[in-house]
Amino acid sequence: PTRLVIDCDPGIDDAVSLALAIGSPEIDLRAVTTVAGNVPVELTTNNALRILRAFGREDVPVARGAARALVRVPRAHPPVHGSNGLGGVDLPPSATPPRAEHAVYFLASLLREAQTRSVTIAAIGPLTNIALFVALHPELIDRIDRLVVMGGAVGQGNITPVAEFNIWADPEAAHRVLTGSDLDICLIGLDVTQKATIDERGLAALRAGSDRGGLLAEMIAGYADRGPDGWPLHDVVAIAAIIDPTLIRTRPALIEVDTGFGIGRGQTVCSFTRSPAAGNGDAPHATTRTQIAVDLDVERFREMILARVAAGA
Ligand code: BDR
Ligand code: CA
């Protein structure tokens, strides 16, 4: 199985992502790190612990990470995930505390013990922790097989007309990771995740599946991000694509992040590369080659979610 660390800000779609990882034999979930994003980091940490408890995996260590963005605290944003980050669902508290170390140091100690390219990271919140990690521990980058990020958009944004929330919440961190970290990155943005919806029938199937499915259905029903086809499970696409890479189609691209303080702040500017070698005048400041998701097999994605997240008690 793929050894996986999930860096997240639960968050309703983050909660479903944790449930999918837990319900999948292809994944060996080694740790969960948390970051400020949908709600403050105390709450995202608490939510991660509660979700792991609800899904019977209190053995997975949780480490609390960055409490704020690197350069500028983003302006207040609407509480899309409810005031507690889980659509108002009050999960029982976990008796397990988070790790004493900061998420970045915890990740470093985990990777120091790991073989070359043996750990995958899914980053499904703002990229603050990952940016700090690549800045502090360049010697450990080679332990990471791949970084799969939910973030960005080639087209329309969701928090501004051009910016997606995770990138907008810490553009400088995203810039550090996406333009010069030398990581092998797969970026899964809104162009694809907006298609990854679940509707009322899906929620009914979750409720019918198990108590755990019922909890997730209740959270999703409290999720303010809703389009005509239902609720987009953005983050879940990242985990699903790690489990089964054939669910998405990707193209190589160079990505730059707008870190200016104008209306473009947080935009991911994507140049689909014209030749295998970076350059050609495309995205002059980007050196990290990224695979960007351009399509999703929605039907197979939905089947995977319904078959797996409600598994267990
Ligand atoms: C992203 O923003 C958050 O609200 C979701 O959890 C997801 O990570 C979607 O733009
Ligand atoms: Ca998230």
From TrEMBL:
Q: What is this protein called?
A: Nucleoside hydrolase
Could you tell me the EC number(s) of this protein? Answer: 3.2.2.1
| UniProtKB keywords | Glycosidase, Hydrolase
| Matches recorded under InterPro entries | Inosine/uridine_hydrolase_dom (IPR001910), IUNH (IPR023186), Ribo_hydro-like (IPR036452)
Cellular component GO terms, alphabetically?
cytosol
Q: Gene3D superfamilies, from UniProt? A: Ribonucleoside hydrolase-like
**What EC class is this?**
hydrolase
Give an example GO biological process. Answer: purine nucleoside catabolic process
A molecular function (GO) held by this record is:
purine nucleosidase activity
Name one matching Pfam family: IU_nuc_hydro
Instruction: Give residue ranges for domain Inosine/uridine-preferring nucleoside hydrolase.
Output: 4-303
| Residue ranges that the Swiss-Prot or TrEMBL entry lists as coiled coil | none
